[in-house]
Write a structure and sequence with these properties.
Elements: H1 2-14, H2 18-28, E1 70-74, E2 77-82, E3 90-95, E4 104-105, E5 126-127, H3 145-150, H4 161-174, H5 177-183, H6 187-200, H7 204-214, H8 223-230, H9 242-249, E6 252-257, H10 258-270, H11 274-283, E7 284-289, H12 296-302, H13 334-344, H14 347-360, H15 381-395, E8 408-413, E9 420-425, E10 431-436, E11 441-445, E12 451-454, H16 457-460, H17 470-473, E13 475-481, E14 483-486, E15 493-498, E16 504-509, E17 513-518, E18 523-529, E19 535-540, E20 546-551, E21 555-560, E22 568-571, E23 577-582, E24 588-593, E25 597-602, E26 608-613, E27 619-624, E28 630-635, E29 639-644, E30 649-655, E31 661-666, E32 672-677, E33 681-686, H18 687-691, H19 698-703, E34 716-721, E35 729-732, E36 738-743
Parallel strand pairs: 6-7, 8-36
Antiparallel strand pairs: 1-2, 2-3, 4-5, 9-10, 10-11, 11-14, 12-13, 15-16, 16-17, 17-18, 19-20, 20-21, 21-22, 23-24, 24-25, 25-26, 27-28, 28-29, 29-30, 31-32, 32-33, 33-34, 35-36
Subcellular location: Nucleus
Biased composition (Basic and acidic residues): 354-365
Protein name: Transcription initiation factor TFIID subunit 5
């Protein structure tokens, strides 16, 4: 049968018995092309790839896929098949090498740090690696640089590359409109891989002319990547280049409808354009969906990240986006709240809000994680008091909406010659902190109450510990001042975060450390060392105790204040992690990166449960809606994108800013989204309207056919200019007054 035949042919090829192989092939009427792309080319380790769910020649090894993943030994080779649905099979056969050593096979999309994923549609590149005892296939996590680059060895005629590319370009530009938009996604990844292939094989002049001829055709949002690429002109340059390695080891993902894919495949096979077909097979992951092709604007909304779009599979996992149940102690407060409302004279408007607060403590949100899914710190008495205060404030909160916009109070840092690099404001809006480029952290009191340190140990021993005002007595009046400066970092401070109980402050710096400061003594308690490079952002969990940091080393780390090692390391981004945010229920963490994607991580097991693509520049701000269902993200492209976390879909795009968006914040009830930018403006958007009537039917969720409204201007409620102050932080007080902060720049 054919399976055995394939295995024997491979054996003959390995043993260099070419003649026997030819004879057997003629006998069996098997031509090389019949066995799938590159099936028996030298050194290809017998890669048999079926594409899509057609009964392709590549599926021959294990017949039609049965919907289960299986590994079968055939004639001294290990064949692994991963299937996602009946009839979709991606097969890779791995022959045993000399001395019984075997190469492992990765089936599915291979990214630098991804685990072995089942359910890939296209067969993958094989990486050399150890073979586990007991017959299991082991996949290496970090492919070796030389192994990665050697993939560029099988090359065509260098002088024909321009012809191949322009031929494909002509074909795509002449295809029907409905297919053209989808197939145009191929231009960029093919351009990069063909260029790198030329450079790797030392055809420098051909590479240069190829680059010059076609780089102008690429989408504008790839300009920065192309700038890096243009500097790679020699084989040696490719060895240590991170961008290059990312491109090589993470497959570029394209989402294409089956019709468009068939069209492309037919064209390449008719033209015998093997060079391009090999690149498509080796380096691209084509996520094929059934149904209508997507329009140009639907595609444009989603593409632009370093590694293409997210695979649909990446956003299928269940996410518990609901809020945790509030503790019960706050019920007796209801009477006081009633009085507060009647004084205002608007009991009707306030009623629904009060019910929410009360019902929060009684009903469990069906989408919420189990209460004990991750261990959260116990509430201290002081926390309970603070919650009570919070409830009282909430009762007096202004209901915002298009008719009732918040007042905005702007804190301008004047003469900040040290260079303001980070700001945070406490939840009760009593303190503001600035991180500066001169490596200092400065804390101000925003209320008339000055900042005081605790007395010295000798003085504390004289205090009567039983007295009612013991907390007042331990404070040293002599230290009272409006400003405290904290010294300790040895580089610019890029992120700051107050703990929810206002006892601690976190700061992270270019020096690679995160520091925890006491706001009782205004001294540094701990320096957390884990990142080897600058740390760009840090944030406390809404429940305290845990915090997250992200940096230039491309990973985010989860810490607990009493552990000096990180509890979790979230690895997967292909560039710096530029901003981090906890979900309101503290079970998830969102990270934004310079690879132009946002990822959502599960704190419990460290898995990446969502990948959002669509921004055209590095992400610099993240904000979860108060109900936990939505995420807003801002980037250097000046767009705010809105995401539905449960369905894993983009649901909105807010255009208006003309520069990087550094601050995003939802009002306390989630009616308004405020965004602050380097263009010196604060803009307010109607969040209720943005999230109503969402199309999240099964088809949209399955194919990602998102329909964004043409114009986001009807969601814009107001634009507020500063004189010359970029906005770096926004904060809604408990009563929904908006505080903004930035440093005046006198250009």
């Amino acid at each position: 049968d054919r399976q055995t035949l394939v295995a024997v042919l491979q054996f003959l090829r390995r043993s260099n018995l070419r003649e026997s192989e030819e004879i057997l092939r003629r006998e069996a009427r098997l031509l090389g092309d019949d066995l799938g792309a590159g099936a028996l080319s030298p050194g290809s380790a017998g890669l048999l790839g079926g594409s899509g769910s057609e009964a392709d020649s590549g599926e021959v090894l294990l017949g039609r896929g049965t919907g289960a993943a299986a590994a079968t030994a055939i004639g001294g080779s290990v064949a692994a098949v991963a299937t996602s649905s009946p009839g979709v099979a991606a097969v890779a056969a791995v022959p045993a090498g000399k001395g019984g050593a075997r190469r492992d096979c990765g089936v599915g999309a291979f990214s630098r740090r991804d685990p072995w994923e089942e359910g890939s549609v296209l067969s993958d590149k094989l990486f050399a690696g150890p073979f586990a005892v007991g017959g299991a296939v082991v996949v290496e996590d970090q492919p070796d640089v030389s192994a990665v680059l050697s993939a560029y060895n099988q090359q065509g005629d260098p002088t024909l590359y321009e012809e191949y590319y322009s031929g494909l370009k002509h074909f795509i530009e002449c295809s029907l409109d409905c297919h053209r938009a989808e197939l145009s996604q191929l231009f960029y990844p093919l351009f990069v891989h063909m260029y790198l292939e030329l450079v790797y094989n030392q055809h420098e002049s051909e590479a240069k002319s190829f680059f010059e001829r076609f780089h102008g055709d690429q989408e504008c949002y790839y300009q920065d990547d192309l700038r890096v690429l243009s500097s790679l002109t020699k084989k040696e340059h490719m060895k240590g280049n991170e961008t290059m390695l990312d491109f090589r080891t993470s497959k570029f993902v394209l989402r294409i409808s089956r019709d468009s894919y068939q069209l492309l495949k037919r064209h390449l096979q008719e033209k015998q354009n093997n060079q391009i077909w090999n690149i498509v097979q080796e380096h691209l992951y084509i996520d094929i969906f059934d149904g209508m092709p997507r329009s140009k604007q639907q595609i444009d909304a989603m593409v632009g990240s370093l590694a293409g779009e997210a695979k649909r599979e990446a956003n299928k996992a269940k996410v518990f986006f609901g809020l945790l149940k509030e503790p019960e102690f706050d019920v007796p407060l209801d009477d006081e709240d009633e009085e507060g409302e009647n004084e205002e004279g608007k009991p009707k408007k306030k009623k629904p809000k009060k019910d929410n607060v009360g019902s929060k403590s009684k009903k469990q949100d069906p989408n919420a994680p189990p209460q004990n899914r991750i261990p959260l710190p116990e509430l201290k008495d002081s926390d309970k008091l603070d919650k009570v205060m919070n409830m009282k404030e909430a009762a007096r909160r202004v209901r915002l909406g298009p008719e009732c916009l918040p007042s905005i109070c702007f804190y301008t840092f004047l003469n900040a010659y040290q260079g303001l690099t980070a700001v945070d404001i406490t939840d009760d809006s009593s303190m503001i902190v600035g991180g500066f480029a001169d490596s200092t952290v400065r804390v101000w009191s925003v209320t008339p109450k000055k900042l005081r340190s605790v007395k010295t140990a000798a003085d504390l021993s004289l205090i009567d510990k039983e007295s009612d005002d013991v907390l007042e007595r331990i404070m040293d009046e002599k230290t009272a001042s409006e400003l405290k400066i904290l010294y300790g970092h040895s580089g610019p401070v890029y992120g700051t975060s107050f703990s929810p109980d206002r006892n601690y402050l976190l700061s992270c710096s270019e020096d690679g450390t995160v520091r925890l400061w006491s706001l009782q003594t205004f001294t540094c308690l701990v320096g957390y060392k884990g990142h080897n490079y600058p740390v760009w952002d840090t944030q406390f969990s809404p429940y305290g105790y845990y915090f997250v940091s992200g940096g230039h080393d491309r990973v985010a780390r989860l810490w607990a204040t009493d552990h000096y090692q990180p509890l979790r390391i979230f690895a997967g981004h292909l560039a710096d992690v530029t901003c981090t945010r906890f979900h309101p229920n503290s079970n998830y963490i969102a990270t934004g990166s310079a690879d132009r994607t946002i990822r959502l991580w599960d704190v419990l097991n460290g898995n990446c449960v969502r990948i959002f693509t669509g921004h055209k520049g590095p992400i610099h701000s993240l904000a979860f809606s108060p109900n936990g269902r939505f995420l807003a993200t801002g980037a250097t492209d000046g767009r705010v994108l809105l995401w539905d976390i449960g369905h894993g879909l983009m649901v909105g795009e807010l255009k208006g800013h003309t520069d990087t968006i550094y601050a995003l914040r939802f009002s306390r009830d989630g009616e308004i989204l405020a965004s602050g930018s380097m263009d010196n403006t604060v803009r307010l958007w109607d969040a209720v309207k943005a999230f109503e009537d969402l199309e999240t039917d099964d088809f949209t969720t399955a194919t990602g056919h998102i329909n964004l409204p043409e114009n986001s201007q009807d969601l814009l409620l107001g634009t507020y200019m500063t004189k010359s102050t970029p906005v770096v932080h926004l904060h809604f007080t408990r009563r929904n007054l908006l505080l903004a902060a930035g440093a005046y720049s006198s250009q």
